[in-house]
Amino acid sequence: MTRAHRTIVTATFLVGAAGVAIGVTARDTDHEIEVTLEECPATVQVTILAHLNGGTIMEIERTTDHGEVLYEVDVRVADGVIEFDVAADGAFRRFENDGQPGVEEVQIRLRDTPRAVRRAFDAIALRADVYNVERIVRDGVTMYEIDYETNGSTAGVVMSANGDVMELESVVPVTELPETVLDALLDAFPGSSIAEAESVQLFFYEVELELDGRTREVIVFANGRIRDRDDDDHDDHDGHDGHDGDDHD
Description:
- By secondary structure, the chain is an alpha+beta fold.
- It folds into 2 domains: 156 residues, Nuclear Transport Factor 2, Chain: A (Roll), CATH 3.10.450; 69 residues, Nuclear Transport Factor 2, Chain: A (Roll).
- The two termini are 20 Å apart.
């Protein structure tokens, strides 16, 4: 069994005077207006109240997402903050999770993470200024993402509930990007400029299995998620890291 990691560079591009972001998911928002629960349509009120999970409403904003009117709701619950959207007709749209099905994200405090997570974080960035902590549950598997500032720069780490590091992120100055990366980006997006770049390291285990006389290679992440190595190799050939492919629980 060998432990492996990869380094991936992600970049945000701003193109043209309109400032269109390439490779960044963003809402086409016409305007946002803060409203009270009583100012929402009756059907929206019913849906909001049904999803409070015992929490209290912090804020409701009426916004437009690609022509659709939505009500964005922030709710304070016992262990953090949850966010969800409700359509104007009262239909529940989603929990805020970057559009990933089966994913729930809740903002919490660092002290509310498992002790193993706190100890592992101290070993990585002791006395760092933590500004965001999220508990992420994907298909029943829990992870913790911690964003922080250190040495005048921002960084982040994703860990399993046992404190095993799954991903490390750190901002990379454009001047420190490899020349091959810069050339590839400029060839793919001519006329663009790099707004931000991050170095991302993924940590996982590669395991070779023998079953019924056949050999199979799989990748296992620290939170227990499994994916086929063959799928990962195929994604690599397409220029992707394979992190978002189909997993096996």
